[in-house]
Amino acid sequence: MKNSFDYIVIGLGGLGSSTAYWLSRRAGAEVLGLERFEFGHGRGESQDHSRIIRLTYHTEDYVRLAQQAYAAWDTLEEESGSHVVLKTGEINFWPPVTTLVEEDYLKSMAVCGVPFDCLDHREVMKRFPQFVVDDAIRGVYQPQGGLVGAIAANEAHRRMATQNGAVLLDNRPVTSIRPMENAYEVVAGGQVFQGGKLVIAAGPWTNQVLAHFGLSLPLTVTHEQVSYFASPHLDDFMPERFPVWIWMILDNYYGFPVYGAQGVKAAKDRFAPVDPDQRGFDPDPVNEEEVRSFLQQHIPRAVGPLLYTKTCLLTHTPDIDFVLDRLPGHPDCCVVVGATHAFKFASVIGQTLSELLVDGSTDKRIDAFQFSRPALGKHTAPSNL
Ligand SMILES: Cc1cc2nc3c(=O)[nH]c(=O)nc-3n(C[C@H](O)[C@H](O)[C@H](O)COP(=O)(O)OP(=O)(O)OC[C@H]3O[C@@H](n4cnc5c(N)ncnc54)[C@H](O)[C@@H]3O)c2cc1C
Fold first, then answer.
1. To test the ligand 1 pocket, which listed residue (10, 46, 200, 345) has its Cβ within 8 A of the most ligand atoms?
2. pLDDT for residue 250
3. Cβ < 6 Å from ligand 1: which residues?
4. What CATH superfamily classification does 4-46+151-216+319-376 receive?
5. Which CATH superfamily does the domain covering 90-143+220-316 fall into?
6. What gap in Å lies between CA 126 and CA 110, rounded to an integer?
7. pLDDT number for residue 378
8. Which residues of the chain are in CATH 3.30.9.10 domains?
9. pLDDT tens-digit map of 183-212
10. pTM over 0.85
11. Can you tell me the distance from the alpha carbon of 25 to that of 18, in angstroms, rounded to the nearest whole number?
12. Chain centroid to CA 87: how far?
């Protein structure tokens, strides 16, 4: 196998797999992807049946990027033959007390021409009798929202990258990166590779990889979970009848129709900080009970025996905006951090990174995602990674 490539992608979770795919469309066999664990492992952020995709965002730039995200997923679907986006409709529930600003969401969608319906509690329950909400709750329904089949999307991105000639290797932890003249020497699983340009897509382990550049970001990694409930009324929760939904508070409740498992999926953010290498895999029973009692109150027919709970990691930036930029001092090396909500954008993020590295620029609006923005502070050498 050759050991010199034009592009090396470090980390093949959701964002790295998409980047390998989009780079491979331009550079084929000149793309190498390196993954620390086995492909499709469940230790990171991206490996579950579903993730929400939505146009309901608080800034115009995110709404426009979400519109471009659908186009990128269309390309993957056309080329791979895999069906990864399911438009179920999406409903946001706005309680009277929340730190999120409903007006920002409505304005951003209006500016971008996104259709939505504002519903009072009666209209919500008439349209979707599965929900029970009182008159303090307002609903915003957006018909293009839905889910991305995350496991299927990751597999399709990697399969298509390989089909385009890219070399993707798993069980190859990157342990050293050394800048050379016009290239990087990357050691992974004891093998030495050379890459002209790099993408770091290491999710919760980003700072471990950035340490090779003497850089770090103020990231917090938390331990999260989602639960699947074996509702005795599964038919009511099929995708053609039941939308994805979000309770619009910061540590929100959210849920999905039946997809990928024989249960209704629901979750509440935990935001429990954890070291990604020391994490446990046991679910938190308190969180499971919080979700169950929320469902009992608001989606009672979804409640049934707990099928299972899947734990995973989540990477936060201080402002919850992504990092999608070149490294300071390294124009040939890009880093991406998903900042808790990137799966819906996975394919367009890969497309954007390929544009940055192959073309030198992108038409996507990514100014908010700069490495050097004030919210990310100074990027001095990390102390102990
Ligand atoms: C419970 C939960 C619910 C979510 N819900 C949504 C949602 O509804 N909608 C949405 O859009 N987003 C959602 N997100 C966020 C989204 O899933 C993440 O933003 C996205 O999956 C991040 O992908 P990633 O590729 O950055 O990380 P990962 O998938 O963790 O991939 C990083 C990869 O890098 C590899 N790696 C690390 N270090 C090295 C190394 N040294 N060498 C080689 N490889 C390395 C890791 O092994 C890993 O495979 C959710 C996340 C969670 C946890």
1. 46
2. 84
3. 10-16, 34-37, 44-46, 51-52, 173-174, 201-205, 208-209, 224, 226, 312, 314, 338, 340-344
4. FAD/NAD(P)-binding domain (3.50.50.60)
5. D-Amino Acid Oxidase, subunit A, domain 2 (3.30.9.10)
6. 25
7. 67
8. 90-143+220-316
9. 999 999 999 999 999 999 999 999 999 999
10. yes
11. 11
12. 17
